[in-house]
Amino acid sequence: MTTEFIGKKSAAAGGWGALKSCGKRLLASGSPIAGARAMLKANQPDGFDCPGCAWGDPEHGSSFEFCENGVKAVAWEATDKRATPEFFARHTVSELSKLSDYELELNGRLTHPMRYDRASDRYLPVAWADAFAEIGVILQGLDSPNRAEFYTSGRTSNEAAYLYQLFVRLYGTNNFPDCSNMCHEASGVALRQAIGVGKGTVLLEDFEKADAIFVIGQNPGTNHPRMLGDLRRAAMRGAGIVVFNPVREKGLERFADPQDKIEMLRGGSQAISSHYYQPRLGGDMAAVRGMAKAVFAAEDAALLDGRPPVLDHAFLAEHCEGLAAYRAMVEATSWEAIEDQSGLGRRQIEEAAAIYMSAERVICTWAMGVTQHLHSVDTIREIASFMLLRGQLGKPGAGLCPVRGHSNVQGDRTVGINERPGSAFLDALEARFGFAPPREPGHNVLAAIGAMLDGTAQAFVGLGGNFARATPDSALIADALRRQKLTVHIATKPNHSHLMPGEVSFILPCLGRTEIDSRPGGGTQLVSVEDSMSMVHGSAGINPPVSPHLLSEVAIVAGMAEATVGSATVDWAALAADYDRIRDLIEDTIPGFERYNERLRVPRGFHLRNAAANREWKTPKGRAILSDAPLPSETVHQRARRDASRFALQTFRSHDQYNTTIYGLDDRYRGVYGERNMIFIHPDDLTALGAKAGDLADVVGAFDDGMERVAPSFRFVPYDIPRGSVAGYYPELNVLVPLASAGRESDTPTSKSILVSFRRREGA
Ligand SMILES: Nc1nc2c(c(=O)[nH]1)N[C@H]1C(S)=C(S)[C@@H](COP(=O)(O)OP(=O)(O)OC[C@H]3O[C@@H](n4cnc5c(=O)[nH]c(N)nc54)[C@H](O)[C@@H]3O)O[C@H]1N2
Ligand SMILES: Nc1nc2c(c(=O)[nH]1)N[C@H]1C(S)=C(S)[C@@H](COP(=O)(O)OP(=O)(O)OC[C@H]3O[C@@H](n4cnc5c(=O)[nH]c(N)nc54)[C@H](O)[C@@H]3O)O[C@H]1N2
Ligand SMILES: [Mo]
Question: How many domains does the chain have?
Answer without folding.
Answer: 4
